[in-house]
Amino acid sequence: MSLLQISDLSLTIGGHAILKNVSLSVGPGEIVGIIGESGSGKSMTAFTVMQLLPRGAQATGRVALGDTDMLTADEDTLCHLRGNQVGMVFQEPMTALNPVKSIGDQVAETVMIHDRSSRADALRVAREVLERVGLPEARFPLTRYPHELSGGQRQRVVIAMAIAQRPALLIADEPTTALDVTTQAQILELLRGLVDDYGMGLLFITHDLAVISGLASRIVVMRHGEVVEQGPTSQVLAEMRHPYTRMLFEASSHRVTLPPHPDTRTPLLEVKGVSRDYPLPRRKLFAPQEHFRAVRDVSFTLERGDRIGLVGESGCGKSTLTRAILGLEEVQEGEILLDGAPVWSGHAPNLDVRRKIQVVFQDPYGSFNPRWRVGPLVAEPLHLLEVPPTGSALEARIGAVLDSVGLSAADATKYIHEFSGGQRQRIAIARALITRPELVVFDEAVSALDVSVRAQILDLMADLAAREGLSYLFISHDLSVVQTITDRVMVMQAGRIVEEGPTETVLMAPQHPYTRTLIDAAPRLPNARAS
Amino acid sequence: MLRYTLKRLLSLAISLIVASLLIFSIIEVAPGDVASFMMGMNAQPDTVAALRAELGLDQTKVARYFSWIGGMVTGDFGTSYTYRAPVAQMVADRLWVSLPLAVYALLLSILIAFPAGIFAAARRGRAADVTVMGATQLGVAIPGFWFAMMLVLLFAIRLRWFPAGGFPGWDESIWLSLKALTLPAIALSLPQAAILTRVMRSSLLDMLGEDFMRTARAKGLSARQALWRHGIRNALIPVLTIIGMQFAVLLTGAIIIEQVFYLPGLGRLIFQAITQRDLIVVESVVMLLVFTVIMLNFVIDLAYAAIDPRLRLRT
Amino acid sequence: MKISRSLLIGAALTSVFTAAALLSFLWTPYDVTVLSIPDRLQGPSATHWLGTDHFGRDIFSMIMVGARTSLAVALVAVTIGLILGVPLGLAAAARKGSWLDEIIMRGNDIIFSFPLLVLAILLTAVLGPSATNAIIAFGIFNIPVFARIVRSGALSLWSREFIMAARVAGKGTTRISFEHILPNVANLMVVQGTVQFSLGIQVEAALSFVGLGAQPPTPSWGRMLADAQTMVAIAPHMALVPGLAILLTVLGLNLMGDGLRDMLDPRIRVERA
């Protein structure tokens, strides 16, 4: 008898079809993974089970939780079941907790709502549950507020709230997507342990095939609101009966072929003993100003033709270092030279150097002024040239650079909202290339993309490296991407570069313990694939 | 929390000093010779000289500023030129009308706005919400003093339920005094209640879209429980800002509404003072009003910190 | 972009009063400067559509001329606020946390601690009551209003990646402020401008009502209400008509502001797309 039995579920929101004939089941003690790209309807499946749907949602079919059909149950029954029989963990731990209530109160609330127990009893239960999820009393008293916790710790609190009543089913909607890879590993370990201890069923929703292949006993692959394939994990991965499953698998472990490194060895970017301080808020009224050193004595050289990766977790200083290299911020110690000239001179950015370096950012949505057309957006860096092209020369240049990233010259007159995320990232690359820079910085440039789109952008980058002999610095938290797109890699931790070397060497035989931790924590797709 | 309070206190002190400097320079420096300004064009030279001596105009500007501030701090607001009476006493008498009126109106405004805003938010998009929102559109657009005249026309002149104006005094009868303030308070509060209702509603609706409200529902709270336990307190943060600003508007708005009801409040005092060029009265009343507003903002800042734990740490 | 019903109604109401104000320069049914005691305190009729006041002046004509005063005061004061407030807000956001930002924002706080009426009282005490001084008082009041809204809108933009991209393209803060920030906060300015404009109508009326605004013989809705106050028992139309004029103008502007906000808010538009 399964815990959760979804049969023939269809969902429309405001007349748009979101889910089409979805059927799946979760048994006690079983971990079922739903995998899909954005727009696959995987999260909406979870919210349909919880019956926390937006207005205008119409569901048909059957969603049986135990003996209750969630689609027809009245609101009182649903309130009784939520938190009690089925708990839920969300993607974004930073906003999932009420900022003005203590963590103890928020966990205890689950207990008080369902058991009508006293506040003291509920707080006692909250204490136990918080211990269980790895937040011991000594460091995490019940009186802590969410803003005093890190993302991973907050996610533990959310999990504590969801399991406080020991529900039969736990639904986790991309619970580790917003977390660092080492934190992700810990949270996955915690969830697995809870399933074993409590005999819960776990419905785990993700976009990451590697995460789910190591966790779930069964996999459900979704696309455009439909289940395209499901079955035991090993079987699905071995057989891949549906072409979409195969495409997902291949895109997730996509490999590109980089052209050989040119033989000339001339330094392009030299970072020498760079440190960057930020002032901290004063703790006492008249205390001396204290500083936080985000980048500590970093030195490296990027030679012409180099494709270097910079890897680290959030807060390690890689973004700060990027801003310093781009000449956006002044550094406190050391110097950064591009082609022999400093990027920052006399407390002002050096514009002569600036035109030799361009950047592609992470967010394909926030990277463009929504009120400008694509042409002027792409042409903006031409501002750096002494004599920017005008008229037909300008048009030709915009057309050529759009063409080189796989778009067309006609796209120049469109607005940015007419393009998809992947196309926008192509436009961002076009903008970076228009000044024919010596060096391009890719700042988490493929992190926000679906795996299939990510594979295409990686292909484009390899292609550009071959055609234009592009040198780049590729900043990422994702080892598997860095592995294929770079020749050399640097690992950054707490403001320092702790390890550096050829990518294959560092990833296969890491020397520094932190590098090893990172590699061990990264989820991996099974290599072998039967036939 | 202590650090936060100290920081607020410091900015409170700076605001007060800058505001008093501004008022002082506009009143005592801008018009040129204050004494001749106050006496008008046809004044005798010896009366102007007498006033100059009385105002201490022979002293330096700096000395005059400090003696004015010193007086304000010790409760000596100077002597009104036209009434020949201490300003402090005159202001205190008038304040006993204006302040209760403003508080009365604020309470009315909150009493109307909170239920109406929560009601509308809970029924978002339905007929009840549309009706409440339509009513607030009207409420925001109605000029308070005109609404006051209409109230007088209906409830005082036609129906004779309330007095058309005047004020018996608290010593005379608390009940009749309250009754005399009721129509003014209603007129004063209506536009503010409409604004506050809209803020309350939109603030709550913003909260309903927050992730933590969804978390609360996932725990098993009903929509109503989630709204009361998690929505209201967070929604109060913007509402508090508006309430703080509203008290200032109500206090000064009272000055205008008093004119409709012939109430012996600060309004009448200040308008008479302006026509009679009694700058001493104007200066002190203006400083008092600004002082009240700044103090109010200080209290609101502390209230924020009580509601939002994140603020207690921040600067 | 869908034009909402509230925008249509609001724009229609606003146009009617604007048209009346403009027409009054060329033509009014009666001359508002001519007193005609025999015709005084008449109710609405075919000859005097909205009746006459205690001096026998035609109220319809006075409403037309009064619209001129109200709209002019509000328009000029909002323009003052925009011209001075917007650059201050942009500058403060561009140098967030610097002494310039600190000075601008503390300055705003100080002006904000002077309620509008107090500002008007201060100015009229020294300069004497007039429509011009009402404009100055409301104009000063508007500066921090626009500075704040532009600053907060600009701050959220400064952290966006397209601003970083512009900086990588070598553009300075001033240029970025005008090329990238200003077009993206324009919607905030339009919406807030409408709100301040409608507030200006109310402020002009209130100040004139207590004698701090337009002085006779300048016709003004607030002054008409002040005159009506003593007559309210015998000639209620004298109070009703100007009050409704204020109400409808303000209502129209507010509805227009709401409609514009819904239309211009990029967030809402993205959701529709």
The SS-based structural class of chain B is: mainly alpha
Task: State Rg of chain A.
Answer: 26 Å
Do you know the CATH topology of the domain at 87-275 in chain B?
MetI-like fold
Q: Give the class-level CATH name of the domain at 87-275 in chain B.
A: Mainly Alpha
Strand content of chain B: under 5%
What would you report as the Rg of chain B, rounded to the nearest angstrom?
24 Å
Count of helical stretches of chain A: 18
The level of helicity of chain B is over 70%
Described by its quaternary structure, the protein is heterotrimer
Mean pLDDT of chain A: 91
Largest sheet of chain B: none
Low-confidence runs of at least 5 consecutive residues of chain A: none
Into which percent range does the helicity of residues of chain A fall?
Answer: 25-40%
User: Based on DSSP secondary structure assignment, what is the total number of beta strands of chain B?
Assistant: 0
Greatest interface (CB-CB under 8 A), with counts per chain: B-C, 52 and 41 residues
Distance between the termini of chain A: 34 Å
Assigned CATH architecture of the domain at 87-275 in chain B:
Orthogonal Bundle
Give a quick rundown of the structure.
The complex is a heterotrimer of chains A (531), B (315) and C (273). Chain A has 531 residues and is of the alpha/beta class.
Walk me through what this model shows.
- The complex is a heterotrimer of chains A (531), B (315) and C (273).
- With 531 residues, chain A is an alpha/beta fold.
- Chain A has helices at residues 42-50, 75-81, 103-115, 119-132, 151-163, 181-198, 209-213, 233-239, 243-252, 318-325, 351-354, 374-379, 391-404, 421-433, 451-468, 479-485, 503-508, 513-521, and strands at residues 4-13, 16-26, 31-35, 57-65, 68-69, 86-89, 169-173, 201-206, 218-223, 226-232, 267-279, 291-303, 307-311, 333-338, 341-342, 344-345, 348-349, 357-360, 439-443, 471-476, 488-493, 496-502.
- Chain A has 18 helices and 22 strands.
- Helix content of chain B is 80%, strand content 0%.
- Chain B contains 13 helices and no strands.
- The mean pLDDT of chain B is 87.
- With 273 residues, chain C is mainly α.
- In chain C, α2 runs antiparallel to α3, α3 (99-112) crosses α5 (131-158) and α7 packs antiparallel against α9 (236-264).
- The radius of gyration of chain C is 22 Å and the shape is elongated.
- Chains B and C meet through α1, α6, α7, α10 and α11 of B and α3, α4, α7, α8 and α9 of C.
